[in-house]
Amino acid sequence: MSIPGVKQRVAEVLIAEIGTDMSAFPTPKHLASRAKVCPGNAESAGKRRSDKTGKGNKLLRGTLTEAALAATKTKDCYYAAQYQRLRARRGHSNAITAVGHSILTAAWHMSPTASSTATSAATVTRQDPDKATRRLVRQLEALGHHVTLEPREVAD
């Protein structure tokens, strides 16, 4: 119940629908996929597009939506900022689904039986270092810095 938007009733539904043993879900992405609150994926001719999330457990999905709506009304909260940022680009319902996904991910991380192999920031950076480099350069340039990249000499 320490997650914004999650009170006793929402916590009860989460436990009733998912259970207390999170070891069945190796990562929070597996849990979100099971609850059908993860983004859909449609690929055709080598192009990837966003797709519908799918039909999942109506009670769990409705409860996550309710918790997300409550969390977006909380002041100085990450979920409220996430909702405002996404609503401008994706619309209200997609932003609420994304906040519900974040709440479910937080619940997975808070579970004592969750896997310890959760992805860290270092893991994400290792997956695509070029993408991380481009993102960081853009951030520095947005702050008014001139960035010149030079490859580092690797000692054998």
Task: Tell me what you see in this structure.
- This protein has one domain.
- Helices cover 56% and strands 6% of the residues.
- A hairpin with a 2-residue loop joins strand 1 and strand 2.
- It is globular, with a radius of gyration of 19 Å.
- The termini are far apart.
- About 3% of the residues have low confidence.
* Strand percent estimate: 5-15%
> Number of helical segments?
7
Distance between the termini: 52 Å
Return Rg in Å. Answer: 19 Å
Instruction: Report the major sheet.
Output: 2 strands, antiparallel
The best one-word shape is globular
How would you state the average pLDDT, rounded?
81
> Number of folding domains?
1
Low-pLDDT stretches are 117-121
Sheet/helix structural class: mainly alpha
Along the chain, the helix and strand elements come as: HHEEHHHHH
Instruction: Name the strands of the widest sheet in spatial order.
Output: 1-2
Question: Which percent bin holds the helix content?
Answer: 55-70%
For the secondary structure, the number of strands is: 2
Q: What key phrases describe this protein's structure?
A:
mainly alpha; 56% helix; 7 helices; 156 residues
Fold blueprint:
Blueprint: H1 8-18, H2 28-35, E1 40-44, E2 47-51, H3 58-72, H4 78-90, H5 92-110, H6 121-127, H7 129-142
Antiparallel strand pairs: 1-2
Can you describe this structure in just a few lines?
With about 160 residues, the chain is mainly α. Helices cover about 55% and strands about 5% of the residues.
